[in-house]
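Please, structure for the following, as C-alpha cells.
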Amino acid sequence: MALRITDECINCDVCEPQCPNTAISMGPEHYDIDPDRCTECVGHFDEPQCQVFCPVECIEVDPDHTEGEDALRNKFHRLALALK
C-alpha cells in the first residue's frame, strides 16, 4: 500500500528528506506522496520513515492504493533499476 498525508499536515518539512524513494513533495496545500514511488520504505527500512519522523502523525495508509508486500518489493526493485 502506498501512504498518504492527511490535511492535518503542518508543512514542517520533516518527512520529505526522510523518503528514500523521493515520493514526497510539496502539494498545493501540504505535502503529498506519489503512490507510484511509495514503497512504505520496503527495501530500505523496516518501517515507513515518514511515519516515524512525522510530529503530528498525519501519514496513513492510502486505501485507494492497496498493495501487498510483494508488490511493494517489486516497486522497490523497479525504482532501483531506474536509478542505474
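The longest helix spans residues 69-83. The radius of gyration is 12 Å.
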